[in-house]
């Protein structure tokens, strides 16, 4: 079953990317549905900036690989 979503090199297949995108959309929709709509609406500029920096940092660190062995030996 996992071979459908991940190829032999550990990368995602087309079905893996589609599943990831679908999970992302479902997570966003669930967050919007569960969000508290009362009180203050929207985000402050500082909150959005911190969120954007956290997403950018997560994206950049996802490309870091261990120079020696596999990820279990880092």
CA radius of gyration: 18 Å
First-last Cα distance: 28 Å
Helical percent range?
40-55%
The general outline is: flat
The helix tally amounts to 2
What's the number of extended β-strand segments?
0
Assign the structural class, choosing from mainly alpha, mainly beta, alpha/beta, alpha+beta, or little secondary structure: mainly alpha
Mean pLDDT: 81
Report on this structure.
The chain is mainly alpha-helical. The chain is built from 2 helices and no strands. It has helices at 14-34, 45-61. The radius of gyration is 18 Å and the shape is flat.
Quickly describe the structure.
The chain has 74 residues and is mostly helical.
Q: What labels would you give this structure?
A:
74 residues; mainly alpha
């Amino acid at each position: 079953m996992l071979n459908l979503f991940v190829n032999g090199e550990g990368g995602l297949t087309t079905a893996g990317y589609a599943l990831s995108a679908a999970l992302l959309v479902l997570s966003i929709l669930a967050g919007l549905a569960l969000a508290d709509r009362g009180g203050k609406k929207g985000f402050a500029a500082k909150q959005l900036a911190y969120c954007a920096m956290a997403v950018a940092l997560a994206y950049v660190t996802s490309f870091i690989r261990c120079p020696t062995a596999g990820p279990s030996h880092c």
